[in-house]
Amino acid sequence: MPHVLVVYTDDEPGVLTRVASLFRRRGFNIHSLTVGPTERPRQSRMTIVVDAEEATVRLAVEHLRKQVNVLEVQQLGDRPKVVRDLALIRVAAGLDVRSEILQLAQVFRANVVDIAGDSLAIECAGGPDKIDALVDALRPYGILELGRTGAVAMARGPRASPERPAAAPLPASNQAMSV
After folding, report:
1. In terms of Cα–Cα distance, which of 79, 81, 80, 71 is closest to 164?
2. How far apart are CA 99 and CA 28, in angstroms?
3. For residues 80 and 159, what is the distance between their CA atoms, to the nearest angstrom?
4. pLDDT tens digits, the chain, 179 residues: what are they?
5. Within a 10 A sphere around the Cβ of 126, how many other Cβ atoms?
6. Which contacts qualify for 38-45: CB closer than 8 Å, 24 or more apart?
7. CA distance linking residue 49 with residue 1, whole number of Å
8. CATH 3.30.1450.10 given to domain 82-152
9. Boundaries of CATH 3.30.70.260 in the chain?
10. Whole-prediction pTM value?
11. In 3D, which of 38, 57, 54 has the Cα closest to residue 46?
12. Which of 21, 42, 88, 121 is 20 to 30 A away from residue 164, measured at CA?
């Protein structure tokens, strides 16, 4: 069963390599790894999806917490969570099947982001099962290219970790405007 880990780190060169190496040394297959900035300056947030036994994942979490640049590790486990992925899919789409593919995209609430003479590029965001289902539905038409971001996950409800205080408010010039 896949396990979802959220790891907050210092945003410094080499941190990603050290974290990935920890999993490599233990023989884990990282199913998905995404990294990006957080609400706090100079910090990164990794979402790591691994396929391993529960006890093995718990051990990896403990090893992650010992890493110098790792600030926090959350094992989402069975907690309610939101998991999202983004896919770009280029599918063969001759004029004879183009309308069928456009209808499929609409059913999956996907967007056509590029139209070529013989293909369409479709963007779809959602849970991994939704992305997998769209890929399976498009496969008979001929998938020419597929790129996925990997999972980004967050526990549902309020911020669960007491060790990380809420981010300081942004200066007025950077705050989103209400409309």
Report:
1. 71
2. 43
3. 13
4. 789 999 999 999 999 999 999 888 888 889 999 999 999 999 999 999 998 888 888 888 999 999 989 999 999 988 889 999 999 999 999 999 999 999 999 999 999 999 999 999 999 999 999 999 999 999 999 999 999 999 999 989 886 554 444 444 444 444 443 33
5. 18
6. 38/8, 39/167, 40/167, 42/10, 42/11, 43/8, 43/9, 43/10, 43/11, 43/71, 44/8, 44/9, 44/10, 44/11, 44/15, 44/16, 45/6, 45/7, 45/8, 45/9
7. 10
8. no
9. 2-79
10. 0.78
11. 38
12. 21
Domain with CATH 3.30.70.1150 in the chain: 82-152
Tokens of 78: 């069975």
Let me know: does 167 contact 18? Beta carbons within 8 Å.
Answer: no
**Lookup: tokens for 88:** 């770009």
CB of 1 closer than 8 Å to CB of 51: yes
